[in-house]
Write a structure and sequence with these properties.
By secondary structure, this protein is mostly helical. It is about 50% helix and about 10% strand. The chain has one domain.
């Protein structure tokens, strides 16, 4: 996996923002879109409102996490490695090689 492949998936997905409906496991989005242009994801399988909240926030949270990863990688290129092996090198390599 690379940050560019994750960003590509985010860009190709239905744009947000998404929101969790109050007291319901339903997620709707994009917020503010005309009724015919909105998508509703509803689970009757008994999943929790917390699951819906996580899914609704995932695109925004993921984009922020990618920003942090990319900034850390850029800074790390110019900094001295800390330890042997370097924990940041290990974490960045794990991210880049994940499926």
């Amino acid at each position: 996996m690379s940050s560019s492949s994750v960003r590509k998936r985010l860009q190709e997905a239905t744009p947000g923002p998404w929101e969790k409906e109050e007291d319901s496991p339903a997620i709707t989005g994009p917020v503010g879109a005309a009724r015919d242009d909105r998508m509703i994801i509803y689970d009757e399988g008994g999943h929790s409102e917390e699951d819906a909240d996580l899914i609704a926030h995932a695109p925004t949270d993921l984009a922020l996490a990618l920003d942090v990863i990319e900034i850390a990688a850029e800074l790390h290129e110019t900094q001295r490695h800390v330890g042997d092996p370097c924990p940041l090198c290990i974490a960045l390599a794990a991210f880049e090689t994940a499926p």
